[in-house]
Amino acid sequence: MRVKVRPARQGLVGQLTVPGDKSLSHRAAILGGLAEGETRISNFLPGRDCLATLRILRQLGVGIDRLAPGEVVVKGRAGRLAEPEEVLDAANSGTTARLMLGVLAGQELGAVLTGDASLRRRPMGRVTGPLSRMGAKFLGRAGGDRLPLAVEGCRRLAASKFVLPVASAQVKSALLLAGLQAEGVTRVAEPAASRDHTERLLPSFGWPVEREAPTVVAVRGPARLHGCRVAVPGDLSSALFFAVAATLVPGSCLRLAHVGLNPTRTGALGVLRRMGAELELTDWREENGEPRGTLVVYSAALEATEVRPEEVPALIDEIPVLAVAAAQARGTTVFRGVGELRNKETDRLAALEQELRRLGVVAQAEGDTLTVTGGRLRGGLGRSHGDHRIAMALAVAGLASAEGVEVAGAECVEVSFPGFFDLLGVAAPGSV
Ligand code: S3P
Which of 119, 215, 406, 413 is deepest in the core (most CB within 10 A)? Predict the structure, then answer.
């Protein structure tokens, strides 16, 4: 599908709510599946990734009622999942694949997990390696590094201590999910703090998590989780596409209501402020351990900046849209230490270099550094590379460009942001 996004004729004005947080929706459903009793999730993200998680949970015997697209009731199996008869398909979702590997590791069953062509290229050894040390068995391509993978779980996993080489919330969460099913304390240390939704959500299910340091977390198993209510805030990563659009289009004043403001996710707000963006946060409150509030964005002229490696974990998913902000800033922005982007739904560094160049922008991806020089966003045809965040970043570029951007392969936005183009048309009338 191709969608043409024309330059915005007027500022983005008004109030929007974006769909629920992807990371939290996955975790609420998975923990609900392992818990005893019912878990009621409101504002669950009905995007393709999270629907893949629900489908897999159903195949593992978990009862799931969808009362409305975002209202989900999960009937947990008190720690014992059923052996699936068919192959489990995580589709495009790295979070589904890695977190479910952590779950399956602790179950007495055999299962085969696969995904789409993009997911089958992504590394899984970062979870299967440590999970094997706990006692689970994996058989698959590249020594267990690539899907499809056959899993033989183990009901007596050995609790272990891990020091991760990369900051990854998917890996950390997979190990914590296995740790909940192991005998004793499982401890995970990361080189930098990655998103901590699993840790914040577990107490709602009645199970404590120990934070031994900002980058060290431990759980004791075997856990008895109790079903609960989870209110998912809007996804800040989705809201940021609109926040950057409002910043770049003159005359904007946009309120993005009820978005998640977990500090391990807000790195892009700091970078945008440093570039000159005018952002305000109001209506703060906390539920299920997760802060949330309203983000108000006014248009502003941006200056280039340098994004440091230690900032990256808290803005890992925002680099595509920050690169578009950089394409309209004065000067050259440098993103350092962003090599992990090569392991996402596509090689996002290569995709950003190629697509920004096609739109007239001076951009270069070399090793784990991306540089973008602002001021020459002409427009043209941009390809999504099958990656939802590249597609949405290109759409934002279209609004701010001289000639508009035609986004090819636009359907992949459904992975994390169903209805993205409709909402863009509401925020910027006449542009889509
Ligand atoms: C996620 C973790 C991040 C992020 C992804 C969602 C999660 O991946 O990019 O979109 O929900 O745990 P990594 O753990 O690979 O950094």
Answer: 413
Query: Which structural domains are found in the chain, ordered by start?
Result: 2-20+233-427 (3.65.10.10), 22-231 (3.65.10.10)
Catalytically active residues, by annotation? 317
- The string of DSSP letters for 132-195 reads HHHT-EEEEHHHHTEEEEEEE--TTPBP-EEE-SS--HHHHHHHHHHHHTSBEEEEEE-SS---
Å from CA of 402 to ligand 1 middle: 33
Testing ligand 1's pocket by substitution, the residue of 23, 177, 196, 415 carrying the most ligand atoms inside 8 A of its CB is 23
- Cα of 172 from ligand 1 centre, angstroms: 10
Substitution candidate for ligand 1 out of 92, 201, 316 with most atoms within 8 A of CB: 316
Please report which confidence band the pLDDT of residue 158 belongs to, taking 50, 70 and 90 as the band edges.
Answer: very high
Task: Identify the band that residue 223 occupies on the pLDDT scale cut at 50, 70 and 90.
Answer: very high
Please tell me whether the overall predicted TM-score, pTM, comes out greater than 0.70 for this model.
yes
Within its chain, how far is the Cα of 390 from the centroid?
13
Phi, psi dihedrals of residue 75, rounded to the nearest 5°: -100, 105
How far is residue 100's CA from residue 88's CA, in Å, rounded to a whole number? 10
Q: How many CB atoms lie within 10 A of CB 363?
A: 22
Q: Please tell me the predicted confidence (pLDDT) of residue 151.
A: 98
What's the gap between Cα 222 and its chain centre? 28
Q: 344 C-alpha to center of ligand 1: Å?
A: 9
Cβ proximity of 420 and 384 under 8 Å: no
pLDDT digits (tens, 9 = 90+) for 48-107: 999 999 999 999 999 999 999 899 999 999 999 999 999 999 999 999 999 999 999 999
Residue 37 DSSP symbol: S
Stretch (H or E) spanning 31: helix 22-34
- Binding site membership of 169 for ligand 1 (Cβ less than 6 Å): yes
Could you check whether the bond before residue 250 is cis, i.e. omega within 30 degrees of 0? no
Please report the beta strands in 269-373, taking only residues with DSSP state E, as ranges in sequence order. Answer: 278-287, 290-298, 306-307, 332-335, 362-366, 369-373
Whether the CB of 262 sits within 6 Å of ligand 1: no
How far is residue 257's CA from residue 293's CA, in Å, rounded to a whole number?
7
What is the distance of C-alpha 392 from the center of its chain?
14
Amino acid residing at 355? E
Cβ(238) to ligand 1 under 6 A?
A: no
